């Protein structure tokens, strides 16, 4: 790449100026170089890029690569293969190599790979996997998907608190061959109980005659492997650590949650929240089969249809109002949409706040009070806007009298303000209520809020129209 | 903690069984022990816990802590202080100590702290900050908030490619005193151009007589500091690395994006998406002042009000239909809500897919086709459900004839199906269109989709009602 070419370039140009590693890797495999040369060149690339490049190779090219690399190198690459390709590539390895590759993987990655193979292959493989790997895989599989233990890796460095600095250093070098997560070294006492952590760079710069205990942060943060992810992920994030230890009930170290795991968990958790807000039962991706997409979306839609019928029958109670004064019907969608929008805003804010922090009763009250005020002020602003705009619109475009036009727009403005205030409160109180009774507020709140807000908006609007426009003004 | 107490406990009990570090820290500061003892005990805790404990201390207790600890220790703690408390705690330090603490921080943290101080303090501080720190702070501040360079840290280990393994090890030990991110060691060539990375554990276990070049992954992934976060974050995530280097236009290493930075960026990006979907201009938290909350929500609401008026005037065109057959009006909210729900589902799926992957034209077409089929099938199912349920409801509860009841419910079912199909397509095409013309689809799509779907639903429903019920059936 020429220097001149990329000075003063835009972000997009920069991004496209980056080398296409996948292409390079594929062409290395296709080249006529000697196996040793090919292998040498391949190992200059990141495993993630090699894994991605497999997709653009033919079966025979991939098999050439499998033969060139040793088990260690292959298993590093297979840790990066995405779930859709796992079954295909694994089929191309013979059963012994499969078992060896899975045995070499980090246990959490191995669990992921096994989950994406068919039952028969999985059972065959587990038979052949080494004892250590099998134990680790069983450990991680023993946790539910929503327990933090299911996300941990057993790849960590653990030393005894009684070592000297020199011994600790030697132990680290020994364990570094097997474990990559070496930037934090965990310490256990003589009863195998977790008792703290040492940061690798402190160990590296320490004088050899210092006692090891000077380096140990004894009150290092930890989680229990059985804790719910929802309950501890925000807390884990705050420490900005390379890894956080996960303990069993007897305070023994089972595994660690690395920063990479945290990225994945945060991504998943927020993806779930996002999906829930959109009325999906869980996140979808591009490769999702049609049937599964339908299954993910249909449940909410059916519930929403049922709740929509409730709203419709309430609207039906105001049929006489509409029959006498059809013009009010035109603005029903406006009031309902606005109430819905405001409710969703409050819902989204409340769910994120409930997720992030443990609120005291006082803070909860403060949040409700604040959302109420936001709803009231926004409602006032929009109500006045509607009063002016809609009144003028009816007067000038529909040719109605000023009194009639502004009576109707006053009714719309007032209904809008009231509906927005109530929707804000409903959007805050409902998720709090679900949280209180231990139901995930992100799941349950959406449809209920839409329905309650629709009902509130309909009753407020048609109620006002009936009392003010028909009973008082006699239009 | 007794072992027996926590065997067979629930996740919640486990989580509450954890020690309350903040309380412990506060009581250490309040104790009558000698300063040396207090300091010794304090340093056993994680900086994040000490930072959190500051909140429960009085000013004089905090000042005691500031006196006890040295600049290095204080700056580590201040890196964890949350934004709301930064101004308060900084006011309690004298100006020299302030400058020293900020100089010692990672540059990205220092930038964050400076952003949360008032302008006067900030300007005073920048005068007093050491040259190295000032240069790093200026570098990071030079990037826009949406460029990846604004999230990088200048805390990394960089060595020359010409070193031997032994020299590299010595260089690492030297730099480890200043830099914590040592698990990946970056390598530059004789022209200071970035040329690869070495993983620390490979360096540790390497034989001293190996050439250093054997350890260097020369095609290590990197980003340009000027790239947009949106464009590269998904890509960075895939590598699951402890850190990814950020280069300038001349391929010199400027900083690194650590896994901790990635956690924050992913959290922020998804939080933004979530907020956008809910019609907020950006994420809000508990401590947001009222005025700001209103400002974040009002813009969308005003736009939505304007668009709602457009829908209302289209509904107005069907006033005669409603005047003749008021019962159809009852189900308007149902059709509009359902079309809106389906549109939001498609929108959410499309935005996540567009965010995660670079789609080929073929994949885009596939996505539209799939969303269309999902919409059609769900529409068919719900349409048939409505036909049966609503027809029976009108017949049995409203006492209308079977012909009349099921004509109306047929019209509703058909409109529902059509509206759901079209809404799915609209929900997929609109974000794609915005992406194409380089407007963030998450920002712009929501209100437009609501409006288009409302219009589609209104026209389909009342149009069908008019043609079928009034013109053909003559009800």
From TrEMBL, chains A, B:
<comment type="subunit">
    <text>Homodimer.</text>
</comment>
<keyword id="KW-0813">Transport</keyword>
<comment type="function">
    <text>Acts as a magnesium transporter.</text>
</comment>
<dbReference type="InterPro" id="IPR046342">
    <property type="entry name" value="CBS_dom_sf"/>
</dbReference>
<dbReference type="InterPro" id="IPR038076">
    <property type="entry name" value="MgtE_N_sf"/>
</dbReference>
<feature type="transmembrane region" description="Helical">
    <location>
        <begin position="455"/>
        <end position="474"/>
    </location>
</feature>
<dbReference type="InterPro" id="IPR006668">
    <property type="entry name" value="Mg_transptr_MgtE_intracell_dom"/>
</dbReference>
<keyword id="KW-0460">Magnesium</keyword>
<dbReference type="InterPro" id="IPR036739">
    <property type="entry name" value="SLC41_membr_dom_sf"/>
</dbReference>
<dbReference type="InterPro" id="IPR006669">
    <property type="entry name" value="MgtE_transporter"/>
</dbReference>
<dbReference type="Pfam" id="PF00571">
    <property type="entry name" value="CBS"/>
</dbReference>
<keyword id="KW-1133">Transmembrane helix</keyword>
<dbReference type="Pfam" id="PF01769">
    <property type="entry name" value="MgtE"/>
</dbReference>
<feature type="domain" description="CBS">
    <location>
        <begin position="152"/>
        <end position="215"/>
    </location>
</feature>
<protein>
    <recommendedName>
        <fullName>Magnesium transporter MgtE</fullName>
    </recommendedName>
</protein>
<keyword id="KW-0129">CBS domain</keyword>
<keyword id="KW-0472">Membrane</keyword>
<comment type="similarity">
    <text>Belongs to the SLC41A transporter family.</text>
</comment>
<feature type="domain" description="CBS">
    <location>
        <begin position="216"/>
        <end position="272"/>
    </location>
</feature>
<keyword id="KW-0479">Metal-binding</keyword>
<feature type="transmembrane region" description="Helical">
    <location>
        <begin position="376"/>
        <end position="396"/>
    </location>
</feature>
<dbReference type="InterPro" id="IPR000644">
    <property type="entry name" value="CBS_dom"/>
</dbReference>
<feature type="transmembrane region" description="Helical">
    <location>
        <begin position="298"/>
        <end position="318"/>
    </location>
</feature>
<keyword id="KW-1003">Cell membrane</keyword>
<dbReference type="Pfam" id="PF03448">
    <property type="entry name" value="MgtE_N"/>
</dbReference>
<dbReference type="InterPro" id="IPR006667">
    <property type="entry name" value="SLC41_membr_dom"/>
</dbReference>
<feature type="transmembrane region" description="Helical">
    <location>
        <begin position="338"/>
        <end position="355"/>
    </location>
</feature>
<keyword id="KW-0812">Transmembrane</keyword>
<feature type="transmembrane region" description="Helical">
    <location>
        <begin position="402"/>
        <end position="434"/>
    </location>
</feature>
